[in-house]
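Write out structure tokens for UDP-glucose 4-epimerase.
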Amino acid sequence: MISSKVKVLLTGGAGYIGSHVAKLLTKYDYEVIIIDNLFSSQPQKVYGRFYKSDLREEGKLLEIIKKEKPDIVLHFASFISVPESIEKPFLYYENNVGNTIKLLSAMKKAGVKNFLFSSSAAVYGIPDIIPVPETAELKPINPYGETKAIIEKILRDMAEAGEINYISLRYFNVAGADPEGEIGPNYKQPTHLIIRALKVAKGEIPYLEIYGTDYPTPDGTCIRDYIHVMDLATAHLLALEYLLSKGESIVLNCGYGRGFSVREVISVVKKVTGIDFKVIETKRRAGDPPILIADNTRIKKILKWEPKYDSLETIIKDSWKWELKQK
């Protein structure tokens, strides 16, 4: 375990994934600093020293980083909706790419070299190999995935020039909630399947839509690799320790190595909640690949990562417990 005196700065640290990582870091006595503009999240609890700020405010951003002098920056602040990225591509390039460049610039000026990046399986587009390894060609099919691929290229070039040490974690489908019930999904406008399905079961949304039933999969719906948010948080802790001790820049998939279709997820949600809610089948959305499943061999080997919540039913049960607590 790295020294408890290590300072970790999280951008977007009050959001869904960031807050779970922040909670785990505080548990292990890391000094946590959070920058978040609260644009897309409604935090119930913020772990660490909090600055309400926007990455667009370059002067304030540099001031915070120079004041806090973090040992490493974890970057969670980005827009994540694939459909929205197709409708508003400039917004995504401006926020995800432009603001990341501003963050990296501030880090350079403040002399901070260690960077942990929240990337995405969306960089793979429609992969030729399933499960998809980190060595697969990057060919995103939507602007969201493009923004992540562009940032990875920037980081790779900076690392080769000796300007930065980084680990890029390519998330597959993150779901679930803190098993202790303190925090959970906190999006103002949730778009993810499991959250929306639970909100339909709860009566907050009238029905759930299945986008496309004619994909080349066993039941015609998209297949995804769902990872519990706390297993993902553990991956961040291990990646942070690896980067600070080894200084080696790497890219790692974060997933379980198996997938579930949209219909299978809906079936488990109905089983867990005991509610047979309304489902409507509609046409495909642009930008959705048929199947995305991680080859997680590398993260298990390099970080010694071993998932603890590797069950779709566990993911949905923890999410449902969280949803039932929300008004």
